[in-house]
TrEMBL record:
PANTHER family: 4-CARBOXYMUCONOLACTONE DECARBOXYLASE FAMILY PROTEIN (AFU_ORTHOLOGUE AFUA_6G11590) (PTHR34846), CARBOXYMUCONOLACTONE DECARBOXYLASE-LIKE DOMAIN-CONTAINING PROTEIN (PTHR34846:SF5). NCBIfam families: ahpD_dom. InterPro entries: AhpD-like, AhpD_core, CMD-like. Residues 23-97 form the Carboxymuconolactone decarboxylase-like domain. This is Alkyl hydroperoxide reductase AhpD.
Amino acid sequence: MTTVNLSKTNSAAYRQVLELDGQVAEALASAGVDEKLVELVKLRVSQLNGCAFCLRMHTRDALKKGETTDRLAVVAAWWESQYFTAQERAALGLAEEVTKMAVPEGTEWDDGSLTPEQVSAISWLAIVMGVWNRIAVRSHFPVAP
């Protein structure tokens, strides 16, 4: 199989994803979504998509923003722990629903903890994170110690 770095072979498309990522970051900030929650969603989407590059990057980013190692250790099973607030649980459930494309739509996460603006921003975050995961995995971005 030919390995191609998608960010270099079609840099115009890559720049468009970067621009979309920036717009989503603005929507998240405007909706009042906490930076640590953004990193938790990025991690969970990356876990579901099997992207080691993004997992390492966003774990480091989360730690820099003050996230705890305990919460990072259990984010893969967030629904089973008591580490996360109602809003965080709602955001993680929403991100999973968007990532897995659940049909019919499951709304166990929809307990009113998120505003409509936050639902939109977190949905877009999960969509864009899925794009980043696919770019990194398909491009075989290196993940070495």
